[in-house]
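Weekend entry, working from home. Most of the wet-lab plans are on hold until the incubator is repaired, so I used the time to fold the two sequences that have been sitting in the queue since the last round of cloning. Logging both here for the record. First:
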Amino acid sequence: MRDFLADSAYDDEREIAQYLLAGHGLFSVMGSSEDVLGSGQTILGGDSIHSDGEWVWRGDLRFYVRTHHVALPTEFLERVRGFNHVMPAEDLSRLMEIAKDIRARL
């Protein structure tokens, strides 16, 4: 995670974090995860997995973006901004396909 720390926050960091928070749940994990970068904070639902139908991320990614200004892939940011930071509508069959693929890799 330390390898992806940015020098400064994105101008639209709050909106990006909201997009991440609005992700469609693939796997929900009760509990919390520790901040691996050492702030001492815990993140509720941090181990859960979310998607926008194309990208997949952990539930704690929004925390790392807001708290530590973690840099995200350019292609992901283009998608988020292309949707004006609004999560695309749920495509249940696509999300089930993604979840099945993730489960097969475990």
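Second, folded right after the first finished:
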Amino acid sequence: MSLESLHTALNAIQVLRSSVGHVFETLANGIRADHGEDGKETKFVLELHELLSKVNGNLREVEQAVNSLTPPPGPFNLGNTSCLSQETTQDRQALYPQLVESYKWTDKVHEYGNLAVALLSQNSLKRSYINTSAKRRRTQTSSHNVPPQAVDSVIATIDRLFNDMHVKVSRPFATNAVLQITLGRILKAVVAFKGLMIEWVLVKGHNEEFSTELGVGGVGGQLDLWSESRYCVFRKVTENANAAMLHFYSPTLPELAVRSFMTWFHSFNTLFSDTCKRCGNHLHSGLPPTWRDFRTLEPFHEDCKP
């Protein structure tokens, strides 16, 4: 590629930019006084037509000048920027190689972008290959909106699975069920539901209560879902139980999600007798293994869990 042809192409681009700028300037000024009063709109349109014809001619000249250029066969020559390598300042000596690398990287981005456009244009970008014109299946009932009878049936089935876990169902908040679970003589828990979705889990010691103080005349207080246990071990179990609640959540299979959570929770019946599968100790940092693996139900300390 000769410098003369490159200079010609640059001049053609400069002329084109100037002519385009003149068009926009004329449009911005609108009809002027020198157009006169008679047929001023026609004169203005004719002037624009002449300017656009000139832009069209300049554009053809740019295309011809660019087509006559050939890409350089060797590495990029950045002209006077090569003098940067002679800079005496230490932090500027490596600027020229960085410029060359940036140009190469930009060319690769353009190349990969063109390839990506070619590949994406061959696909319709559909989420699936299923024909959407077919009749849609009826949307399944949300796990939030389940009749109380269905919830009681699921809970009764789960209660029969574990002999050492007693489950009591109450509904202090409208139709949503709240389970009060007693796991042997180890711990107690409150599990709040919304439909068949578990919303909250609170674990306390076997000697702790979930109700507020007795009211007037010795009548029992209200159910307390928020006061934490005074024991650190059961506060940690509460934290892990809420993590398990989120892990087993399934909007499409709510019964399986509840049954899986209850199976996981039942594994705490050996909270104070199991040893950690990682370190083999009963206690670590003063706590028993308060974590149970979601798949194998193996006990781990908080610092030993995988």
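Plan for Monday: verify the second prediction. Residues 40-67 form the longest helix (28 residues).
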